[in-house]
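worker-3 :: picked Tryptophan--tRNA ligase
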Amino acid sequence: MRILTGIQSSGRPHLGNILGAIIPAIELSKKSGNESFLFIADLHTLTSLKDGEAIRNNTLAIAAAWLAFGFDTDKNFFYRQSKLAPYHTELMWYLNCFTPFPMLANAHSFKDKSSKLADVNAGLFTYPVLQAADIVLYDANIVPVGKDQRQHIEMTRDIASAVNRLAKQDIFVIPEAEISEEVMTIPGIDGQKMSKSLNNYIDIFLPEKDLLKQIKKIVTDTTPLEDPKDPENDITFKLFNLIASKEEIDQMRSNYLAGGFGYGHAKQALHEVMMRKFADAREKFDYYMNNPKIIEQKLEEGEKKVEPIAQKTIQRVREVFKF
Ligand code: TYM
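worker-3 :: tokens ->
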């Protein structure tokens, strides 16, 4: 099976990206018979961020996160979308011509911003078509993503099927989204979906004290310390629940229900479990960030390896139109 997923370089990787995409994609890549295409969607980034230096730094940080969580770049494919831009954007053009206008007008990524149309660039509007091209260019079967991407994968299936119907053959593999229930939508420190744009994210790669500061900002209700608390409606507990062991979670739940256990204690425990659970990844992340040349080299190798696959798909599509 071919597994494929991408992350934009619009900020540093956050806990939502890590639990929603990075860890599930790497787990899938380890299963025998699978090969994974994990990339940095830096062309997509340009829809929101135009500063080249910032895009570059974020790209390195996203790449370092993939590597820190153990992505095996020898066995798989690791690349920047921008370095294969001729293939991604050529295919996007063909797919654009199969994409009904109302489909794009209904995309959440556009609708969320459509109240201020002057701020919407054409890149943001056609964003899902570039994403569809990213996926079908490499014949991906499975796309592990967070819940916010479900609609984009549905669109990819519709657009690719329209080309297959016209060509009366399977030009494209029709992909499936893989969205794990428990990490579908990771909450941010304010309880809304964790995201770069809402600035409510947790950056697990921060120095220990700064990470604690971020965790302390998690919003809580005002139940007094001595009273019992409802774990199911608390953001700190929800995050703890995603990371800690079963025993630790059971213990934490009884602490909440018993009372005498404050949100400050819960946050301290969340910080501790993060430091422990991500100790290895944090160390490796720092190593790669201090050695950007190693990241660069791994990406360049991946980009060379992936190019013939992209070329082949483009060839197949061109034949349909006699180009
Ligand atoms: P992006 O960069 O916004 O997010 C990258 C991945 O992280 C997941 N994610 C979350 N999962 C759970 N809870 C959250 N709070 C959370 N925040 C982010 C996202 O669902 C995603 O899987 N359009 C994509 C990038 C992309 C792509 C692709 C993905 C471009 N081409 C092809 C898959 C296949 C995006 O903006 O992701």
